[in-house]
Amino acid sequence: MIKTPYLLFLGDAPDQLAAKVAQGIKDWRPENAVGQFRMEGCKADLGLTDMSLQEAKAAGAKTLVIGVANRGGMISQAWKKVLVMALEEGFDLASGLHNLLRDEPDLVAVAEATGQELHDVRIPEVDYPIANGKKRSGKRCLAVGTDCSVGKMYTALAMDKEMRARGMKSTFRATGQTGILITGDGVPLDAVIADFMAGSVEYISPDNDDDHWDLIEGQGSLFHVSYSGVTMALIHGGQPDALILSHEPTREHMRGLPEYQQPTLEELRDMALMLARVANPACQVVGVSVNTQHMSEEDAAAYLAKVEADMGIPATDPFRFGAGKLVDALAAV
Amino acid sequence: MIKTPYLLFLGDAPDQLAAKVAQGIKDWRPENAVGQFRMEGCKADLGLTDMSLQEAKAAGAKTLVIGVANRGGMISQAWKKVLVMALEEGFDLASGLHNLLRDEPDLVAVAEATGQELHDVRIPEVDYPIANGKKRSGKRCLAVGTDCSVGKMYTALAMDKEMRARGMKSTFRATGQTGILITGDGVPLDAVIADFMAGSVEYISPDNDDDHWDLIEGQGSLFHVSYSGVTMALIHGGQPDALILSHEPTREHMRGLPEYQQPTLEELRDMALMLARVANPACQVVGVSVNTQHMSEEDAAAYLAKVEADMGIPATDPFRFGAGKLVDALAAV
Prior knowledge:
The structure is a homodimer.
Chain A: E1 6-11, H1 20-28, E2 33-38, H2 53-58, E3 63-66, H3 77-88, E4 92-95, H4 105-114, E5 118-120, E6 139-145, H5 152-165, E7 169-173, H6 177-183, H7 197-204, E8 212-216, H8 228-238, E9 242-247, H9 265-279, E10 284-290, H10 297-311, E11 315-316, H11 318-321, H12 324-331
């Protein structure tokens, strides 16, 4: 668990896109974002107050989060100076970079000397159990995709936000590095040892109030041969009561697999439901979340209307049109 | 890759069952088993020649395989003396114990000094790639089970043996520790990092002759919520042309999951086929392998006849009645 709130380190980000992790934190957990720290030449700006380490400390920040990606995932010497100073000032550090904080001897030495923590969110920090399959109290929703990177995390975060706004009991459960940095907790599922995948999902979504929903972040796709095992573990470890189908209609082939085509929403529905009912016979498919970013508003509306007619369940683009329809569907379960 | 042939170390095995890994090597790869090494008090006997380290060395043995399980997976001091002597005599060591050879400082030091290798087959020895899903040449068969531990490895090994006897081109591809020790190669799939599971299956089953069959060792079950992700990776990484359904009809519930029931063979067939066709649209279910060890011969025969009538494909118990029917079915693909 990463201590919140954060000071968001944007470093020398070459453009706004490079700071998308920091942007995600600011968008989805503004209460976690005390301010931003920018170095000379930084081209990103989250619109947060620029703070020195001392100012952020005084404002309550506990962890400096590296919210920026640079070429090759490197931790540059220019950054190091700030990171070492942050440890000395009493911050923990958190990073989702490929290169690990723990592999930098200077950071490790200073962290040990100062008693601060280094969090590499690409690496599990827990010894997860093997899944026991026992029915847990509370309710769970999982987004499953026709492909990878179609908006499953966004869908869950948008639904979580809408549910909180309505006063419903809801928790977003992160299963990937961006989600973990946004919320400060979760499992980096793609880095878990095979035998413990489903157990790690059970671990992050424990017993809860009967009217509480866990919105579990989806990963991969049952139809993406590289990562389908991870998706399977989410479906059986998560034992969802409700599935949301996630889709991006303009893809020409499966992400990274030119020889593979996306399934239809009907194929996804039937396969996901059959598998989900192994762990939870009451599971239902309650809605469709479509990523319409590459469609005109008119085309998007027409596409969503057709999906609703074909599938008989609500369909929306939660980014474009809000997550209300999907939350209505959950509330009706 | 573990150097063959082996001297099989039975240690102070308390009974025959404790030596079941060694028994598997002797049964399935007798050419890998030069002899057995037994310590005082050993209650197991494979019927192989008892050899000293020097005798086995002279007979060509390259690796001392710890083919025995003892309580807690410990590597006892009594064993250590033999293991150190084996390294000094020029043997590599291989083990599937929970406790790792590499965690024993004395063994590590002697292995380094002598230039010998320590193989812990529970731990991957390769940095596997992410699966690319590209169609590979050659044919592949995978056994999928209604549950874990229903005889999938045995089925593949029995089919491999029968195919070799018929002069067909066949390779058993191990995906678990016992299979790896039997053949000297393979992937300990349950210990692979989630993102690389399917890639590791692609890696161990590369392009091959058009008339060559890989018999890929199955793991887990699509219906076993603890391990279904591993099974999924085998189905998509293995891109099988043929599936064998494996079943044990007398189980009262899923192994280790008292709240879960086994699926029917029809349910397994439909789900496995739907998933397998994502990676290989030509995949077929060609036969059923039933573990009838808890049934009388009469009951077994009646059960198999009923399965054949219901499913319309050959069904047998390869241990009891031979793997011929299943190999006939493969040959017809």
